[in-house]
From TrEMBL, chain A:
<keyword id="KW-0472">Membrane</keyword>
<feature type="transmembrane region" description="Helical">
    <location>
        <begin position="296"/>
        <end position="322"/>
    </location>
</feature>
<keyword id="KW-0813">Transport</keyword>
<feature type="transmembrane region" description="Helical">
    <location>
        <begin position="185"/>
        <end position="206"/>
    </location>
</feature>
<dbReference type="Pfam" id="PF19300">
    <property type="entry name" value="BPD_transp_1_N"/>
</dbReference>
<feature type="transmembrane region" description="Helical">
    <location>
        <begin position="7"/>
        <end position="29"/>
    </location>
</feature>
<dbReference type="GO" id="GO:0005886">
    <property type="term" value="C:plasma membrane"/>
</dbReference>
<feature type="transmembrane region" description="Helical">
    <location>
        <begin position="252"/>
        <end position="276"/>
    </location>
</feature>
<dbReference type="InterPro" id="IPR035906">
    <property type="entry name" value="MetI-like_sf"/>
</dbReference>
From TrEMBL, chain B:
<dbReference type="InterPro" id="IPR027417">
    <property type="entry name" value="P-loop_NTPase"/>
</dbReference>
<dbReference type="Pfam" id="PF00005">
    <property type="entry name" value="ABC_tran"/>
</dbReference>
<comment type="subunit">
    <text>The complex is composed of two ATP-binding proteins (NikD and NikE), two transmembrane proteins (NikB and NikC) and a solute-binding protein (NikA).</text>
</comment>
<dbReference type="GO" id="GO:0005524">
    <property type="term" value="F:ATP binding"/>
</dbReference>
<dbReference type="InterPro" id="IPR017871">
    <property type="entry name" value="ABC_transporter-like_CS"/>
</dbReference>
<dbReference type="InterPro" id="IPR050388">
    <property type="entry name" value="ABC_Ni/Peptide_Import"/>
</dbReference>
<dbReference type="InterPro" id="IPR013563">
    <property type="entry name" value="Oligopep_ABC_C"/>
</dbReference>
<dbReference type="GO" id="GO:0015413">
    <property type="term" value="F:ABC-type nickel transporter activity"/>
</dbReference>
<feature type="compositionally biased region" description="Basic and acidic residues">
    <location>
        <begin position="358"/>
        <end position="367"/>
    </location>
</feature>
Length: 332, 379
């Protein structure tokens, strides 16, 4: 019950934040030089009256606050407007692109968490032994190397030189041919993973390295806690101490890190999609900025902001769930 | 005379190998704990009290290691080893394995209460959950029985509304209440011996009094033996039956508590007593011990206390005194490691006095801030 109230409260709090973000975005996009109609009609003979017709058709002739209001009311009724460049509804354009981005970001995160936490714990347990040193060097490499460079290197080595993995594109799991049987579906999934592997590692390495470093430090800290000493003195096994007593205390900062890492991962996805030629939201955003496709830029940026804010809220809720000292904002 | 002791420690040595050399934190101590008594280990910070008590459970943090000595508990050998000539240790036959010590000694035979109740409980688990885990681990009780036992124990140590507080977290308890929880934890495992490592040091004086009364009462009721580690002679007087005074890794005096206070044998014990206010005597000026205890990495030659001892003579710098029996009270020996007593035949009386007092004067300026106070009450 408290959790539900807290969740609703946090979502209510997020509304002004998101409104602020849309205002700033709208102003910035309209302040940038360039005109979508001119870009669209570049190199063609177009009469002044036709230009005026096009401006009126996309609503660009009206004052900016009216256009913002139109956008906002449209957003809440599910009408994201029409893309100038693609000449299709924005929602349609985005729906086609959001799948690959979600698949990429979520798999990269899964990869990061699943590898980083056990490695961090292992490094903490074997502190200052060779395996600890190796994992620290790998982590240092991971946090200090940009994801696009890792992507390019992966393509050069594993796609171009060795030919083990494809260098571009993603296959969506739900795009299996409709007449495929069970084995056909299996091979389709193999194909999905085959395409996903390199971009997932390119995007996930930074997250993995960051999480691993914090996991290691936190576990070392936690293992030196008095409560661990107490557990040992009462005959608790080292296994249980590692898995339960020290582990749970150490996860608090890791949860924050995973939640906030979502924003950097979305940013990284833009680059990774470009390097691996994936038709996701990131590339859509970059293309639309170049085309001055106001409606698409606004919608993509807003959706990314919504995903980020939701990520932060989920982080806070998870934190309060794991750490009993965090209250659900009830001023105890 | 007494039966066989519950715990016998003989010539225990625990060392820490560091970059700067070997720290002999515990350097050959021997003592016994009999059933139903509270034995004090008292001394300044850094004397090796905590390391000594943790060594009994074979819980010495890296890079520490028990290198020699023998620890026998209820006829079982927790540890027994000899130092070989090349500095290694050789475990003797019949020593319990590390796994056996963990499963059969820690918690269910020997339990501990730590100094800092604020840090000793795990912040992310409920009080009840932690109690129950240790009970289930150390006694043959099912989950429900363990829960009931945990609530009973919380009630026993004076936590009001124990059933409701069972599901609360450590941060919802005050320091004194948390220390009560730790005491409940120790008692709930039904050990025969509880090591209390400065359990009241972090508490304020009124709470300390309540906790000491509680322990006194529970000790009578359950008959559990205690090893009470403290730096506070006041606590010793209040709670202990017999006392071991530690200085720089060694036990310098060992006596029943009244004997220690009234027939003090060792100048260090005397200095500790003089540095605290006493209700049984009129004291106008407290007399703190001069200087600070030297590092255990490089102990002084001869008697380790001689640089700070007002009675030190030349012989104290040359010969290392072993504890020797100077008296017997109620079947317990009173041992002291000081040449002043005539049981030693090393020529103390003929030996020229060391000029400690004069040196003390000249050093007083620079050491004024370092004056060590032995008794907590004088702090």
């Amino acid at each position: 019950m408290r959790l539900l109230r807290y969740t609703l409260f946090r979502f209510a709090q997020a509304i002004p934040v998101l409104l602020g973000i849309t205002v700033i975005l709208f102003l910035f996009i309209n302040m940038t030089p360039g005109d979508p109609i001119r870009i669209m009609t570049a190199g063609q003979e177009v009469s002044e009256s036709h230009l005026a017709y096009l401006e009126a058709r996309y609503g660009l002739d009206r004052p900016i606050h009216v256009r913002y209001w139109d956008y906002l009311s449209g957003f809440f009724t599910g009408d994201l407007g029409r893309s100038i460049h693609y000449n299709r509804p924005v929602s349609e354009v985005m729906m086609a692109r959001i799948g690959p981005t979600l698949l990429l970001v979520l798999s990269a995160f899964l990869f990061a968490v699943v590898t980083a936490i056990p490695l961090g714990i292992l490094a903490a347990k074997r502190r200052n032994q060779p395996s600890d040193h190796i994992s620290r060097i790998v982590a240092l490499f991971g946090v200090s190397t940009p994801s696009f460079w890792i992507g390019i290197m992966l393509i050069i080595i594993f796609a171009v030189q060795l030919g083990w993995f494809p260098s571009a594109g993603l296959v969506m799991p739900w795009d299996a041919p409709s007449d495929a049987g069970l084995s056909g579906y299996f091979w389709h999934m193999v194909d999905v993973l085959h395409h996903l592997f390199l971009p997932m590692i390119a995007l996930g390495t930074l997250q993995m390295a960051t999480i691993m470093r914090v996991e290691r430090t936190q576990m070392i800290d936690s293992l030196q806690g008095e409560y661990v000493k107490l557990a040992r003195a009462y005959g608790v096994s080292e296994r249980t101490i590692l898995r339960k007593h020290a582990f749970q205390v150490a996860q608090l900062p890791v949860i924050t890190l995973v939640g906030l890492g979502l924003s950097t991962a979305l940013g990284g996805a833009v680059l990774t999609e470009t390097v691996f030629n994936i038709n996701g939201m990131g590339r859509l955003l970059i293309d639309s900025i170049q085309q001055k496709d106001y409606q698409v830029v606004m919608s993509v940026a807003t959706i990314l902001a919504v995903i980020f804010v939701i990520g932060v809220i989920i982080t806070d809720i998870a934190y309060a769930y794991v750490d009993p000292r965090v209250t659900y904002g009830e001023g105890e | 005379m007494r039966d066989k002791p519950l715990l016998r420690v003989e010539n225990l040595k625990t060392q820490f190998v560091t970059e700067n050399g070997t720290v002999r934190a515990v350097d050959g101590i021997s003592f016994e704990v009999y059933e139903g008594e509270i034995v004090g280990i008292v001394g300044e910070s850094g004397a090796g009290k905590s390391v000594a008590s943790m060594s009994l459970l074979r819980l010495v943090d890296n890079p520490g290691e028990i290198v020699a000595g023998e620890i026998t508990y209820k006829g079982r050998t927790i540890f027994a080893a000899e130092e070989t000539e090349d500095g290694d240790r050789r475990l003797q036959d019949g020593v319990l394995s590390a796994e056996t010590v963990r499963q059969e000694i820690r918690g269910n035979e020997i339990a501990v209460i730590f100094q800092d109740p604020m840090e000793s409980l795990n912040p992310v688990f409920t009080i009840g959950g932690q109690l129950r885990e240790f009970i289930e681990l150390n006694r043959d009780l099912t989950g429900d029985e363990a829960r009931k036992e945990a609530i009973d124990m919380l009630r026993e140590v004076g936590i009001p509304d124990a059933e409701a507080r069972y599901d609360e977290y450590p941060h919802q308890f005050s320091g004194g209440m948390r220390q009560r929880v730790l005491i409940a934890m120790a008692l709930a495992c039904q050990p025969s011996l509880i090591i209390a490592d400065e359990p009241t040091t972090a508490l304020d004086v009124t709470v300390e009094g309540q906790i000491l009364d509680l322990v006194d009462e529970l000790q009578r009721k359950y008959g559990t033996s205690f090893i009470w580690v403290t730096h506070d002679m006041g606590v010793v007087a209040e709670i202990c039956d017999r006392v071991n005074v530690m200085y720089l890794g060694e036990i310098v005096e060992q006596a029943p508590v009244d004997e220690l206070f009234y027939e003090t044998g060792h100048p260090y014990t005397k200095a500790l007593l003089d540095s605290m206010p006493r209700p049984d005597r009129t004291v106008t000026d407290l007399d703190p011990i001069r200087g600070v205890m030297p590092e255990a990495i490089d102990p002084p030659p001869g008697c380790r206390f001689h640089p700070r001892c007002p009675d030190a003579r030349e012989v104290c710098r040359q010969v290392h005194p072993e504890p020797a029996e100077i008296d017997r009270v109620d079947g317990f020996s009173h041992r002291s490691a000081c040449f002043k007593r005539d049981v030693f035949d090393v020529g103390y009386d003929e030996s020229p006095p060391l000029d400690n007092l004069a040196r003390g004067e000249s050093e007083r300026g620079q050491e004024a801030s370092e004056v060590a106070s032995g008794g907590g009450a004088s702090e």
